[in-house]
Amino acid sequence: MSDLFTVEGAGASEGPLADRMRPQTLDDVIGQSHIVGPGRLLRRAIQADRLSSVIFYGPPGTGKTSLARVIANTTRACFESLNAVLTGIKDIREAIDRSDERRRLYGRRTILFVDEVHRWNKAQQDALLPWVENGTVILIGATTENPFFEVNRALVSRSRVFQLKSLTPENLLETAARALADVKRGYGRWKVVFEEGALEHLVEVAGGDARSLLNALELAVETSPPSWPPSEGAEIRVSLEAAEESIQRRALLYDRDGDYHFDTISAFIKSVRGSDPDAALYWLAKMVRAGEDPAFIFRRMIILASEDVGLADPQALPVVISCAEAFDRIGFPEGNFPLAQACLYLAAAPKSNSALAFFDALGEVEKEDAEVPNHLRDASRDAEGFGHGDGYIYPHAYRDHWAAQQYLPAALKGKTFYLPSSVGYEGGIREEVLRKREIQAAVILGDSGEADGEFLSWSASSKGREGWFKRLESGRSALLLADRDRIIGQTTITRYDRVLIPAAGDGLLLWESLRRTPEGLTAALVDTQAARDALLRFAAALDETEKPEIAVYPAPPFPVPGEAEKFFSTGVFDHIFARENWRRGFSGEAEQVFRDYARSAWNLLAPKGDLSLLQSPPRLGERLSRVILEECGAPSELSEKLREAEEHFFSPGVGNAGSPQWLTWDGEVLRRSFEEAGFAVTITTVDQREERLISKRDISAWFDKDRSSWGTSVCGILGDGDFNRIRETLTERAAQGPLIWKWKSFLLLGKRRSLEKSAIL
Lower CB density within 10 Å: C or N end of the chain? Predict the structure, then answer.
């Protein structure tokens, strides 16, 4: 068993500095806040000692082994470690035997850390799989290679993969500062002074690798005068020259069979596709410098010439092929010129991916294996017996060598796949292609449109009423999903973000947020215990650390500062998503209600956090004056009278005297409230519509003059005669089936601005 995790409190002279300075607790970890920051999934699992099998994946020096050491110092389970470079199946079996014995005799779990796990071959990884599956060991694997390609797929499926990122310059400076200040493990016993730019050079060349930085720092300090080790308290001056000698030029992060190979070619392709010749040349140079096969680079450029340039510049493909042939004749080093020429031509060329239309056609073939229309069949064999080819129009017989006729199978009549782009050569042919398509469609549909058309009808007595309800239900689902995508889609959400959803009882935003933040946190507020229980039932199949955190909080919209930690594992969130928070209305001044809401949200958001809210104001809801005119065919004078009465009802300070603000607020009130609370606000107006069945209960509720504030106000203006005529008109139309219902919603995006705390609380 390795003693990798048994070194604690080593002195300044014991072991390399990079090993001595490994973090001992979660709070010691520098960087990687996206997975070990407050409220993140991994941190919660480590603190609760409920870790399941995980794989840490990231570049060298980002803290994979250090995180394993932190877990070793935290867990109550036994900890075993293996290095895949130095061990094999025999070592695996010995570790498994010890783990199995602990579980059977003492009921203790074992965590097995495997460094460089991708170095094991398939047989070695397979030897570990059954014991991970039955719980004999909890695996922690560390790898610099993409585990989805380099690690046994079955092993990956039983583990959660956490990707560690290269450390930022700020993270590296903090790492160096800790090493220089630490008395026991670092150089805190001496006064280490860096010449201007020396430490910054070490940080820059380390390139996000903490181990590289600490190794260079150790060499720079211990080779600088005075001779090592100096007396305690002595000053050590590190010059820029010493720093440069301590950390030589970095080897390129590139290997022809691993992640860097695929990541670099991906960056190259995306730069060419994005028409950035400078970036394209850089990534091309990196591949050439690292020894990439030029044939591979040309192959990818040939594909790109068709996939991303296509008909926007039909010369792109022959140019790249000519450059590839030229390279084959001359080779390196002169072959760099045709390589660069092909790269620059593609980067500067107009772009079109219209060739992807082929895959739409391929998908249609897989769904519909339609027969060839009779007039397109081969007339040379079966014209006499079966009439094959009969009715075919020969385009060259016409003046423009073109005639409108149907070429698609009857089942796909009118289907389109190809849409020409408006750039380059393709832009020149676009108008002609579309013009011919329009004429062709007009001819084809004019010949047989009515004969083959499907007309749907519905009446109150038809047996299709149940089908209409199902159709409406489906429409409502589409509407909700559209709202959900609007709310979440206007923010940039990552796998590690922390999301809070107030009024989450319907779960619409909750589950989508949970799917998008598997390594972060999704928290929700509901107003009753019954609502919380219902949501938790849906989450019953999830692991405890993966479930959303749901709290009952019926009073204000959010907990006050400092109170959120009572309900959730963090009091700070990256996003707040909300939909129709005031569906049931509110009392008091709308501006004050919105401002209180916004202030509460501001206090719970991280410095760069945001709030995305969709709300439908009653003032911009559907008006029955439009419905009876456009959907019911009522006389325009009756509709106009109702429109004026409704406008009066929804005017500020006029309508429902009990809560006029709930009925009359507008987008300006919403914007002003959130801006005063500390948000930079963008509001978009969304036009909404759906088919809706109007029930007798709906009509009774609206036209109840005693209980409906709308009914009381409108009847008072119109009088009983016109009021009853409108009711009868709507009742008659409702009996005939669904009608179109229209309204508007406000989609608000509030980005938290930095303000003085006293201005918010």
Answer: C
**Above pLDDT 90, what percent of the chain?**
43
> How far apart are alpha carbons 340 and 279 in whole angstroms?
12
Q: What is the pLDDT of residues 291-338, one digit of tens each?
A: 788 999 999 999 999 999 999 999 999 999 999 999 988 888 899 999
SS3 112: strand
Give CATH superfamily name and number for 31-163. Answer: P-loop containing nucleotide triphosphate hydrolases (3.40.50.300)
Write the CATH number of the domain with boundaries 472-615.
3.40.50.150
> What string of DSSP letters covers 493-510?
--TT-EEEESS-TT-HHH
Distance of CA 186 to the CA centre of its chain: 41
Q: Any residues with CB less than 8 A from the CB of 412 and at least 6 apart, and which?
A: 364, 368, 370
pLDDT tens digits along 246-273? 886 544 555 555 667 788 888 999 999 9
Nearest one of 81, 83, 60 to 69, comparing CA atoms: 81
pTM over 0.70: no
Q: What are the tens digits of pLDDT across the range 411-423?
A: 776 567 787 878 8
Average pLDDT, the chain: 83
Token pair 């199978």 in the structure block, residue: 409
User: Contacts for 724-732 with beta carbons within 8 Å, 24 or more apart?
Assistant: 725/638, 726/624, 726/628, 726/634, 726/638, 726/642, 727/699, 727/703, 729/628, 729/632, 729/634, 729/638, 730/624, 730/627, 730/628, 730/632, 730/694, 730/699, 731/696, 731/699, 732/632
What is the distance of C-alpha 518 from the center of its chain? 11
Q: What is the pLDDT of residues 32-75, one digit of tens each?
A: 999 999 999 999 999 988 889 999 999 888 999 999 989 988 88
Secondary structure class of 689 (helix, strand, coil): strand
- Rg of the chain over Cα atoms, rounded to whole angstroms, equals 35
| Cα 750 to Cα 597: distance, rounded to the nearest angstrom | 12
CA-wise closest residue to 694 among 745, 628, 649: 628
Q: Report the C-alpha gap between 284 and 192 in whole angstroms.
A: 41
Rounded Cα distance, 634 and 642, in Å: 11
More confident residue, 595 or 659: 595
CATH architecture of 356-435: Orthogonal Bundle (1.10)
The confidence score (pLDDT) of residue 477 equals 61
Q: Is 60 helix (H, G, I), strand (E, B) or coil?
A: coil
DSSP of 247-277, one letter per residue? SPPPPPS--TTSHHHHHHHHHHHHHHHTT-H
pLDDT at 652: 74
Q: Is 418 exposed, middle or buried (0-12, 13-18, 19+ CB in 10 A)?
A: middle
Q: Assess whether the region 31-163 and the region 472-615 belong to the same CATH fold.
A: yes
pLDDT computed for residue 511 by the predictor? 80
C-alpha triplet 419, 422, 427: angle, nearest 5°: 95
> Which DSSP letter does residue 36 get?
H
* HEC sequence for 128-149: HHHHHHCCCCEEEEEECCCHHH
**217 vs 291 pLDDT, higher one:** 217
